[in-house]
Amino acid sequence: MASIKIRATDDGTFVVYRNGAAVASGLTRDQAERCASILGWIAPHS
Fold it and tell me: Organism's domain of life (predicted)?
């Protein structure tokens, strides 16, 4: 199963990581949560 994490940056935006690699950056918290949710759904199939 993929490891998906959300981290805050110094400028107040968020980055989504999958297995240690950044997959999306410059996001609002809501956007980051949605991205992580979608990655969680597709991760088992990739």
Answer: Bacteria
For the full predicted model, state whether its pTM sits above 0.90: no
Instruction: Determine how many CB atoms are found less than 10 A away from the CB of residue 41.
Output: 9
Query: Which phi and psi (to 5°) does residue 10 adopt?
Result: -65, -25
Cα–Cα distance, 24 to 30 (Å, whole number): 13
Say if strands 14-18 and 21-27 run parallel, antiparallel, or are unpaired.
Answer: antiparallel
Look at strands 4-8 and 21-27 and give their pairing. Answer: unpaired
How sure is the predictor about 1, in pLDDT bands with cuts at 50, 70 and 90? Answer: low
